[in-house]
């Protein structure tokens, strides 16, 4: 039996509504508009979704969004584990579109990636997705076509479990974070190609130099500047696109609109937090309210108490909060470079707000983020202990031409670090090493082989790739053998964190969790980090595998993983 | 008949299909997938971009003989291979005539993370007579953030020269930027009709203070100082020209 109490909230409804509100799906409107604590949803087993252009207002400015059923974000879809869902997706755009069901286990031809799993949905056409729902949790869906994610083509997806939910809560709110720009995304990408650092307005200036001289002395400051200058790297280069360009949204609303989720003091409130941004990581905290993380990327984890966590693009976290007081709380979603924030409020009544904390000083990258680079490559660690003669360790001796500006000489595990901007916070901050799967991992075989993959880039030219080869130049997919258990070790040769996403299969993060490694569909690989994930290749077909920073993917940080039957004699 | 499960049939079918390079071909037409695959490739790293950088478009006081100077570069292509047009010149405002003007059409190839190798043709409209030169150069970002553009030229008459330009951006604030600039011209031999002597022929240094209203649009003011050296200076003196000119400059830097 579900333990949530599920009462009806009958609040006084009269309110001042922004123009945008009417265009929002009901669940994303501030709760001044509707009375149910349970979110209105598009639920059931058959869904009709129409992709189109919709003029709307964001932060008071006219915007032309790409929407699903006319709203930004797209409607919350609510499925039930064990059902078979049918989704008729009609394209009213003048260009191709698609929907990818992010994190969902399904037959690959339903995965929705044009050029990999299907041809895409042409203008005027309707594509029908149909597949059984084999999992539960918090997910999302979005376009995989033509930078449409940047323009609003994303929405939340919740699957209710067939069995009683191990997570005990009284009410829930979805907080879908995103980054909006009024620029054309292709123009934005071209700007990055021409002047990759031009969207950063937090560079180090003469003033910073003088401050550092005062603090550290002339010699140390000059040495520091020469070190970075010799590399042609900037320690302020944390996000390619910053708050100078983006308006950060929570449930489609800018900070001033103050999206508000209601609670009654004493309730256990489940927040389903989804980062649907194109390019933005957030550090999320609720001053005065500790959080307990209960789910990561849709699958349950052993509860972890924390005060702040970093959420990479495409990740999801479910947290439980228990506000006891009759007061408002700010959900502060700070861009990791400190250049802006998204904001929501939790309050017992509509119209309340709590102080919004000041943005913290922008962090700086360090020598560790650089991997103590220069010159030769880190030794590729051969995986010991797997001496099966027909399974040699696959090594990637990748090319290092114009597309590779940096090689991490000493990549290290950084799983215990909460991430950029959280190095020095005075409270608890979640790290990947804290996560343990609630249920034991179903496949506990040792990996039969290990592959190594390098995340590579030339920031100056805005080239991004795996193993030094942009997807436009890739000749062969990455091949997994059907049914095998393998270890994928990733080395980040770049100075940026990358949210790496594998379609079609969860992977288990090798973080010391033993039989309870956390399951993820998207994993942040920090600058100069080396980490491993274990994968059971149980999903036949071709699957996209890419950096979920939209413009990194667009610049070539994309590959296809092909899960195939092992060829006879191979 | 357990062995005839759908999975087994699928596996059997996949053995018959001669290597299915692409799983999707089995459920969609291979033709429609082929077009989508090519589009995906173009979409993930294969983009072509067009860029125009007008580095300097400025009025120069030029000690009472004011000129308009332009220095621009347009390019089209991908990350590695690009086609390039460079142009630079001076227009005498009082005489209403072009003092010097050149256009270069170049093929540019990224040969290292920070440098492009460039080769092509240069055409000098002025000074008279017209001349063509072959160009071989490098352009890129040197350590310590110096923008470098260096090229050697061989004219159709066989004279060899070279030009080296260096720029550096010093951020006073996020938008107010001080840019020192240095340009050296070198000649291998005397070219009397151009008034150029062998050796280090001239040096121009300048400093410009720009304000980036947008990153793409920045008006600036500054000073520029040109000095002829060696035999070039002798040629200039013989022509009755001054060998050193100080200019106040005002202009705009634009790119898109």
Name the features.
heterodimer; A: 570 residues; mainly beta; 6-stranded mixed beta sheet; 31 strands; globular; disordered N terminus; B: 256 residues; 12-stranded antiparallel beta barrel; 3 helices
Question: In a few lines, what is going on in this structure?
Answer:
The complex is a heterodimer of chains A (570) and B (256). Chain A is mainly beta.
Please state the average pLDDT score of chain B: 89
Structural class of chain A: mainly beta
Helical residues, percent of chain B: 10-25%
Rg of chain B (C-alpha, Å): 27 Å
Helical proportion of chain A, percent range: under 10%
Please tell me about this protein's structure.
- The complex is a heterodimer of chains A (570) and B (256).
- Chain A has 570 residues and is mainly β.
- Helix content of chain A is 8%, strand content 33%.
- Chain A contains 5 helices and 31 strands.
- In chain A, the strands form 6 sheets. Chain A has a 6-stranded mixed beta sheet with strand order 11-10-13-18-15-16, with no helix packed on it.
- In chain A, strand 2 and strand 3 form a beta hairpin.
- Chain A is globular, with a radius of gyration of 23 Å.
- Chain B has 256 residues and is mainly beta.
- Chain B has 3 helices and 13 strands.
- Chain B has helices at residues 6-16, 30-43, 230-238, and strands at residues 49-60, 67-77, 81-92, 97-110, 115-126, 131-142, 146-155, 160-168, 170-171, 176-187, 199-211, 217-228, 244-255.
- A 12-stranded antiparallel barrel of chain B has the order 1-2-3-4-5-6-7-8-10-11-12-13.
- The interface between A and B is large, with 58 and 50 residues.
């Amino acid at each position: 039996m579900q333990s949530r109490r599920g009462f009806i909230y009958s609040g006084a409804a009269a309110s001042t509504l922004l123009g945008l509100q009417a265009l929002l799906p009901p669940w994303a409107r501030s709760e001044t508009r509707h009375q149910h604590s349970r979110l209105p949803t598009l639920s059931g087993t058959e869904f009709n979704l129409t992709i189109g252009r919709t003029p709307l207002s964001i932060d008071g400015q006219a915007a032309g969004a790409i929407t699903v059923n006319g709203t930004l974000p797209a409607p919350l879809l609510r499925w039930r584990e064990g059902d078979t869902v049918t989704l008729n997706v009609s394209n009213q755009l003048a260009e191709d579109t698609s929907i990818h069901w992010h994190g969902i286990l399904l037959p690959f031809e339903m995965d929705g990636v044009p050029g990999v799993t299907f041809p895409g949905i042409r203008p005027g056409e309707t594509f029908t997705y149909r597949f059984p729902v084999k999992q539960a949790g918090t997910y999302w869906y979005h376009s995989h076509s033509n930078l449409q994610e940047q323009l609003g083509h994303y929405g939340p997806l919740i699957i209710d479990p067939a069995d009683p939910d191990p997570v005990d809560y009284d009410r829930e709110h979805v907080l879908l974070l995103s980054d909006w720009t009024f620029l054309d995304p292709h123009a934005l990408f071209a700007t990055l190609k021409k002047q990759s650092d031009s969207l950063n307005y937090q560079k180090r200036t003469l003033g910073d130099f003088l401050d550092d001289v005062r603090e550290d002395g002339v010699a140390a400051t000059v040495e520091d500047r020469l070190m970075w200058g010799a590399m042609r790297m900037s320690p302020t280069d944390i996000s390619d696109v910053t708050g100078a360009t983006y308006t950060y949204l929570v449930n489609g609303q800018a900070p001033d609109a103050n999206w508000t989720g209601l609670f009654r003091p004493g309730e256990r409130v489940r927040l389903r937090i989804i980062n649907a941004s194109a390019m933005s990581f957030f550090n999320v905290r609720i001053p005065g309210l500790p959080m307990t993380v209960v789910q990561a990327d849709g699958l349950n984890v052993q509860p972890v108490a924390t005060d702040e966590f970093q959420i990479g693009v495409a990740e999801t976290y479910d947290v439980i909060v228990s506000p006891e007081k009759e007061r408002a709380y700010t959900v502060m979603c700070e861009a990791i470079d400190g250049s802006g924030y998204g904001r929501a409020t939790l309050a017992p009544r509509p119209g309340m707000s709590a102080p919004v904390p000041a943005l913290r000083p922008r962090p700086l990258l360090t020598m560790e983020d650089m991997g103590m680079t220069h010159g030769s490559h880190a030794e590729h660690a051969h995986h010991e202990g797997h001496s099966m003669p027909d399974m040699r360790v696959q090594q990637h001796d990748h090319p290092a031409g114009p597309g590779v500006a940096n090689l991490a000489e000493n990549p290290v595990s950084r799983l215990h670090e909460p991430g950029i901007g959280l190095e020095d916070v005075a409270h608890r901050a979640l790290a990947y090493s804290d996560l343990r799967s609630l249920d034991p991992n179903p496949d506990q075989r040792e990996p039969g082989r290990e592959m190594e993959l390098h995340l590579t880039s030339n920031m100056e030219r805005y080239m991004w790739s795996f193993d030094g080869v942009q997807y436009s130049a890739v000749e062969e997919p990455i091949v997994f053998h059907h049914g095998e258990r393998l270890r994928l070790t990733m080395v980040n040769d770049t100075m940026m964190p990358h949210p790496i996403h594998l379609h079609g299969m969860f992977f288990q993060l090798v973080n010391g969790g033993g039989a309870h490694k956390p399951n993820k569909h998207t994993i942040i690989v920090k600058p100069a980090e080396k980490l491993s994930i274990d994968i059971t290749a149980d999903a036949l077909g071709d699957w996209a595998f890419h950096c979920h920073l939209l413009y990194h993917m667009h610049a070539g940080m994309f590959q296809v993983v092909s899960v195939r039957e092992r060829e006879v004699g191979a | 008949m357990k062995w005839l499960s759908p999975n087994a049939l699928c596996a059997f079918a996949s053995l018959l299909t001669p290597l299915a390079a692409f799983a999707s071909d089995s459920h969609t037409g291979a033709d429609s997938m082929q077009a989508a695959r090519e589009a995906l490739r173009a979409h993930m790293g294969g983009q072509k971009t067009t860029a125009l950088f007008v580095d300097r478009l400025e009025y120069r006081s030029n000690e009472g003989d004011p000129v308009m100077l332009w220095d621009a570069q347009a390019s089209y292509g991908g990350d590695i291979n690009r086609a390039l047009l460079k142009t630079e010149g001076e227009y005498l405002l009082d005489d209403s005539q072009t003092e010097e003007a050149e256009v270069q059409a170049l093929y540019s190839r990224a040969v290292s993370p920070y440098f492009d190798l460039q080769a092509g043709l240069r055409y000098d409209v002025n000074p008279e007579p017209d001349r063509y030169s072959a160009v071989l150069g490098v352009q890129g970002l040197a350590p310590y953030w110096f923008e470098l553009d260096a090229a050697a030229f061989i004219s159709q008459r066989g004279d060899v020269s070279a030009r080296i330009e260096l720029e550096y951006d010093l951020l006073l604030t996020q938008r107010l930027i001080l840019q020192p600039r240095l340009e050296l011209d070198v000649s291998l031999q005397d070219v009397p009709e151009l008034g150029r002597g062998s050796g280090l022929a001239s040096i121009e240094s300048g400093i410009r203070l720009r304000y980036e209203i947008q990153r793409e649009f920045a008006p600036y003011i500054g000073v520029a100082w040109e000095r002829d050296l060696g035999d070039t200076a002798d040629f200039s003196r013989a022509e009755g020209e001054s060998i050193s000119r100080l200019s106040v400059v005002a202009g705009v830097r634009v790119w898109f």
